[in-house]
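[Q] Does anyone have a clean structure-token version of this?
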Amino acid sequence: MKTLMTALLTTVAMTTASTGLATESYPTQPIRLIVPFGAGGGTDGLARAIQLSINNNNLLPEPIVVANAPGAGGAVGTRQLLASDPDGYTILQIHQEMFAASAIERVDYTPKDFEPIIQVSEACMFVAVKEDSPYTSLDEMISDINENPADFRQADDIGGATHFPSVQLMNAAGVQWPIVPVGATSARFTSLQGGFTQMALLSPLWLERAAGKIRPLAVLGNERYDFAPDLPTAEEQGYDVTACLNRRYWAPAGTPQEHIDVLADTIEAAANSEEVQKYLAETGEVLKIVRGEELSDLVGKEYASFVEVAETVKGSLSN
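[A] Here you go.
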């Protein structure tokens, strides 16, 4: 396995180098990788794992330098990217939070302002209830909400990336329920544990972290988790809803395609390295490489799904 991985890294490094010669030896200076959140979070962790793999394996002739730019739910760092020259020397890593804010017009940028470089990983959320909850399936939960709507509340991050699939789940179920604005994943878990809310969407890491304290009802992905094969998807239970945080790399619109290709090749090689694979396994994420036209199409579909429920989400913000 190590021999195969070494061969892959060497091959891609050589390919990247030759591509660089074809683009006037790009890069000729360090590349700034903006992480629009604080140090220590999931976005920062993956960015630094990718950075170390690229730099330690000499996949580029110049280093990647991570720069944290937190604030406004990722908007501060994202705007820094858009203010930079489209030359491939400033890139961004973020998940769908950037376009969740765009869909509800919290920010003035849209996918058209960016060049997608590559998607590296996927972490599909799951529907969680407390371990002693009476619900053992989505159908049981939805049925009880229909009968006792006043007794059910969901913990969520109002206006955040998980709020959109929450609205989509309500639409698929044909019933609405109150959402309590508690914030990020750890706060949602705390609210659930304290009995203040009856359901929350959590990331896959919490299946292990909160084992014995929560009961998962459904994966909001297209497939079951490899590490939890008995947990069905929402779609299997009759609810066509997906909610996956996909960590992607971006450049400003107008960045030369040759530079995008060099970056995508390099990041893909790093993502396949043992150190990044180990990081993904530890955080409950899975390697999910998507690039090129396929990635552009995927971004367009996701953004359209956000816009479709944006008015409902904005209504929650005004309440």
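[Q] Thanks! Anything notable?
[A] Residues 1-8, 13-22 have pLDDT under 50 and may be disordered.
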